[in-house]
Amino acid sequence: MPAFQTVRGMRDLLGKDAQIFSNTLAKAQETAFLFGFKEVFTPHVEHLDLLSAKTGDEIRQRMFIFEDLGKRQVALRPEFTASIARLVTSALKNEPKPLKLFSTGTVYRYDEPQKGRYREFWQSNFELIGSDKPEADTEIILLTNKFLQTLGLQNYVFKIGHIGVIKGILSHDGVDEKTQNAILQRMDKKEYDLALKLIDSEKCRTTLQSLINIKSKDWHDTVKQLSVLVAEYEKAKVAVENLAEVITLITSSAEISLNVEPAFARGLEYYTGIIFEVYIPQLEIAIGGGGRYDRLIEAFGGEATAAVGCAHGIDRVVIALQTQNTEYLTNVKLGVMVIPVAESLKVDALKIAQMLRDCGVSVEFELMGRKMGKALEDADKRGLEYAIIVGERELKEGCVVVKDLKKREQTTLLITELVEKLR
Ligand code: AMP
């Protein structure tokens, strides 16, 4: 029988990769703690109706959908926000606002696999429910910045836009919601000509074309040009003011590299306000993104509730870290191997291993009954730093032999001094 392989687009994470992943997820958790987000765990499988309600065609067409044995139409989650909205309209309905919820886990999309694009991938997800204030949008961007900063990542840039500006123009000129979504999907893919073709009104087309043409490195200048463009569009005008307020708050409270792009749109249908993406110019892939979705909770049967959130693509964050070869990755933890010289010393050796573990040292125990030479060779191959050799003569004097596997030196140490030395 041929050897089994993973399903296309799905990966095993092994060795150092697995370690980097779990370290990165731990940093996301640390960020959640620093910003007061509470962790929640939701199922990987949800009702298809819930997942497809507001997500947008882009993702809807790429879901893993199946019927379970009870004939329910279900799907693997393609993102977290729908599950969080479900919680907010049910179990967490009466919780005081703002509600700040954090999750990590895998999500599933039938994307075309390539580097940085998988069908099963990891996200860390943050949702801030119940505030329509620009401070809330700011916190989401600041926490994304903090997360990437604590990982030691460099040269990442925030791209910011506002769906309310585009939607404000389109609805003012009578474009219905379905067409608006189709236009935004095209704009998300930078297919601007196709997007413009969907608009009947010439005035609206001209305004949107002018919006697409606005390109300036200085955000003050971009906002000024936008304000002039939408002077007659009441809702879009309010959106531009909101965009300016959020950017002012962000840039005044942190050192962040930020580009404002008025024609920036995102594939998810539920956005209503600020939207953003973080990317690394050399890599040309987004490592995270998010935005404001003030009408989603209502669409799911809850009370009208403002909300803003983001998701970070952990697989891509890890790729970015690996390309930048950050110190954080090479910071491998100390590990030791405890080897008893003879059968009769197993118990003493196990006790020493336990003592070291109690002090937080990562300890492996020689489990294959190998002779000393082979055991040391194995410890070296495993990348461990020290071998603790437990021999009868040394033990009688309360000592063990400590062999530095990198320097190939060895000393005899009192067991009581061992922890201090390994620290
Ligand atoms: P989204 O949920 O579409 O806003 O995506 C949030 C983040 O998830 C993106 O910025 C990417 O970093 C990551 N992401 C999206 N699709 C994939 C994929 N197919 N494979 C790996 N990461 C992805």
Mean pLDDT: 94
The largest sheet has its strands arranged as 1-5-6-11-10-9-7-8
Domain count: the total is 2
For this structure, the CATH topology of the largest domain is BirA Bifunctional Protein, domain 2
Number of helices: 18
Radius of gyration equals 27 Å
Helix fraction bin: 40-55%
Low-confidence stretches: none
Shape-level CATH architecture of the largest domain: 2-Layer Sandwich
- Could you tell me which ligands this complex binds, including any ions or cofactors? adenosine monophosphate
> Beta fraction of the residues?
15-25%
Question: What is the 3D shape?
Answer: elongated
So, the CATH homologous superfamily of the largest domain?
Bira Bifunctional Protein, Domain 2
Span between termini: 49 Å
Number of strands: 16
CATH class of the largest domain: Alpha Beta
Major pleated sheet: 8 strands, mixed
